[in-house]
Amino acid sequence: MDHRVPVVSAADREVGDAPRLRAAPDVRSPLGACPMTTARAVTLRGAGPEDAAFLFRLRTDPVTAAMSFGPVPTAEGHAVWLHDTLANPERRLWIAEDGETPVGVVRLDRVATTAATVNITVAPEARRMGVGTAMLAAIDAAAPVWGVTHLVAEILPTNEASQRLFAQAGYTRTRPGVWEKGR
User: Fold this and answer.
1) Which of 65, 66, 87, 133 has the most CB atoms within 10 Å of its CB?
2) How does pLDDT run across 154-172, given as a tens digit for each residue?
3) Pairwise CA distance, residues 117 & 29, whole Å
4) For residues 133 and 36, is the Cβ–Cβ distance under 8 A?
5) Tens of pLDDT, residues 45-80
6) Is residue 1 part of a domain?
């Protein structure tokens, strides 16, 4: 069985494993449709320790670092962050794949029973190819599986590309640097 086919079960939620979901950009969910159109689709699979090098490369990419709120991590700091992230029941970390190739990462942090912050990073080699659009569409399918119907993205004012992306995905700017979707 292809592990990238949608797999969602009670066991997935009980043990805290992230479900594996595939979503095209026209996905429908309690969050509403992602109104953007693109031919690209990505698969989300739960991240694991084996993804440490890929995640570290994304977190230390100069463009990503310039658009992030936190400092660029050291290798040791990243290892601690990944361990803590994977152990945190209020956080979901997915690797976005195009076929078998990792193209990005998505993180949801629960901030209320049905609300979570969403963070995405597209791999440098996959930027400007519709991957961000597809990742947000996949989140529209994945978030409700975790009981999340309200997503909040915090975006630096200088990150105009992400502001456009989230706006096109149906997020509304509710205050400077904050974009929300669903309720």
Assistant:
1) 133
2) 999 999 999 999 999 999 9
3) 17
4) yes
5) 999 999 999 999 988 877 877 778 887 888 899 899
6) no
Q: What percent of the chain has pLDDT over 90?
A: 55
Q: Give CA separation, 15 vs 6, 87, 142, 166, in Å.
A: 17, 11, 16, 31
Instruction: Check whether 126 has a pLDDT greater than 80.
Output: yes
Distance CA 154, CA 66 (A): 14
User: What's the CATH code of the domain at 169?
Assistant: 3.40.630.30
| Pair 21, 6: CB distance under 8 Å | yes
**Does residue 5 lie in a domain region?**
no
The edge-to-edge listing of strands for the beta sheet with 115-122 is: 21-23, 42-46, 91-98, 101-112, 115-122, 150-154, 178-182, 172-175
Q: Alpha-carbon torsion 26, 31, 32, 35, what sign?
A: negative
